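Final report, closing paragraph on structural work. Over the funding period we assembled a curated collection of sequence-structure pairs, and we close with a single example.
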Amino acid sequence: MPSDLASTLLDPGPPQPWWRRLVSGQDRLIHLAPMAAVLLFLAAIATAFWYLRLEEVHREQEAVKRDVEYSQQRLRLRLLERQEQLMRLARDISDREMAPGQFDIRAESLVSQHPELMSLSWIDEQRRLLAIQTSPSVPRPRDWVADGRIKPGDALEGYDLARDLRQPVYAQPAAVEGKEPVLYMHVPITPRTQFAGVLMAEYSVDGLLRYGVPAEMLAKYAVALFDGDGQLLAGQRIPERRGLADRMPWAGKINEFESPVSPVGNGLVLRAQAWRTSQGVVGGTLFWLVAVLAAMTTWMLVANWRQSQRRLLTQQALMAETTFRRAMENSMLTGMRALDLYGRIIYVNPAFCQMTGWSEEDLLGQSEPFSYWPIEDHEELAARLYDELGGEADPAGFQMRVKRKNGSTFDARLYVSPLIDAAGKQTGWMASMTDITEPNRVRRQLSASYERFTTVLEALDASVSVAPLGSQELLFANKLYRQWFDNTTAGHLNMVMRAGTPETQLSDESLDTVDSFAGLPMESLATSPIAEHAEIYIERLDKWLEVRSRYLNWVDGRLAQMVIATDITARRQAEEQAAAQAERAQTASRLITMGEMASSVAHELNQPLTAISNYCTGLISRIKSGNLAQDDLLGALEKTARQAQRAGQVVHHIRSFVKRSEPRRQWSEIPTMVEQVVELAEIELRRRQVRLTHHVAPHLPMLHVDPILIEQALLNLIKNGAESIDVAQRATGNRVVELRVMPRDIEGMPVVQFSVSDSGRGLAPEVLARLYEAFFSTKNEGLGIGLNLCRSIIESHQGRISGENLYNAGEVVGCRFTFWIPVGPARDNNDMNTSVRIAA
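Its predicted structure, as stored:
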């Protein structure tokens, strides 16, 4: 019967006559006619809509193009206005009409008035960052700066291009995900057509969009700025439409227009996209009617197909699931073992067999004691098995020893859980076993290493303490810390508060743009910045301590601070004694210098005193004779007063020079110091018939120095030159000492250079080797401390001194001593290590 039904369904029957086939074809045409009419009607409607839609799109495109060009002009004018302001600022710097302090004021005004400006930097010809003003919302330092210089990158390329072209240059760095896109503008500084650096403005691309594009444009369109590669820098763009109507052939593209922003060029493109406001084809009722009818027909066809495919897919999925589970069990590195409710092994995976060395056939069906149990652990493991079968197994697992088939053992951890079948009924116990031999060995080594490390810390002659931020808990303290501060955090917090916050150490994190302390409670950190270490005085201990600190992540993940304090009391006392001795030596040197110049000073004072005596004697004679007019009397008295003032100035200069005072550094003018030295030195040089010439370069910066000490060093060098000329017995026209003061740039650092040249007999090679040695002198009455003190004075101001012979045709014609002082504050030895006296 089934075969008959199948043959009936498959048999097409006898062939139909030609007239019946013709009727059938006509019927099919009749049935297709309404469909064709509907299709023609839809085609006519679609054509009309398509034409209207094209006209509307054309008008919208013209409007978008007009608005984009207007916005581009607005943005261009804004950039040109900033460029003109920066060029005026560069011209002021080139004309030397602006000091760094004035630059900071004007740069801060520009940054605050124009929100699109992120920062304004002054960079010299050596690529050093001289000054920078940033917006309050911009972090410092910037990522294009490293060690006070421009590091290689887009900023450096723009700098080089501005230097070569001598005109403003825009640089667009490549966009990086997670960083705000910026635009660099380099304006060269060219005093007298010489390149002296650039002014670099850093624009926020997002700020240019927000403040350079009119607000009505931002409200009307989706406006965005792109780089030359089409990557979005700022703004928004309309996402690609994924709807059904947008996939139709008549679906139009997004109405947009773009234009490069001048003067930047093709590297910055302004694009505007019009928001979709029309309903579109998909919103029409006719479209949805056709779509619903087509969907119903498609659903009927798909339903039969899905029914036939569902059974095949279910079968394939079941086979794939079974194969996957088997493969997963066989590839696991964790050993799996299943027991029935009576404690017999009913399943082991390949990993379990590989770990124990026993095959699956050997293990299946075994009951306790199992073959992988060590003999000496039978009782303990049997007790654990009974607990397991009783449902009392520790969910955290337990550690045991496992014996391999070859007799060796290893450490393992076993986790036990109930084995539940598909019906939800427990049929046994499943256990997973992992080999922990290596972790145990590492744990034992770490424990031994910790013990050795703790022993070393306990034996240190420095105090070591670790405490978390914002907590009174003391995580670690060695023996010396406990002796000084007991076992509390009071001493730790006291040292941190006085010493300040350590600088961040250079690490791999510094190469990233992510802040190492982002999200951390910075108010918990000490707020006073220090150098690598600080020196503090603890009155309770009567000790000076050198304190170093750094941050570290504790074992539990908390941020902690480690403080190491070393006793430097003996070193501090030695430094104080050495400073006192140096001060006494400097005062003694000045007194010795004045003693050596005593005859010259007496001669200098004798001249005005003799003149005063002569004027007074002449006045007395003329008064007695009655032959003295009032004008003659006034003239003689004025000359007498001038001579008395001259003598008083000589005494005042000598008293200021030899007066003992505490070292005091202040901002001093170089011409004033040179004038004081020249007035004192000319007293001695006139006695020796030596002419002193001096040249001081104009516009020299002020120096942060002790003027008395610098004057002492210059006077010693000038006096030594005069003595050398006197000993060499030079002719009158060749008895000259020259003092020159010039600005220089040494090792990339601006300095002021002092040079003293004489026409004496020069220095012998053996003298040059011992030039600055204490108590070494080539003069019979010399003490050998003059040049030694000069070097000490110069080096205490972070400067350097050197001496050399002057040659003419291979013959020594004199000697020159040169020293330089860096521009800016100099630190003495006590300032090198921050010292703070505190009450503990």
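Residues 1-13, 503-531, 826-840 have pLDDT under 50 and may be disordered. The radius of gyration is 47 Å. We thank the funder for supporting this effort.
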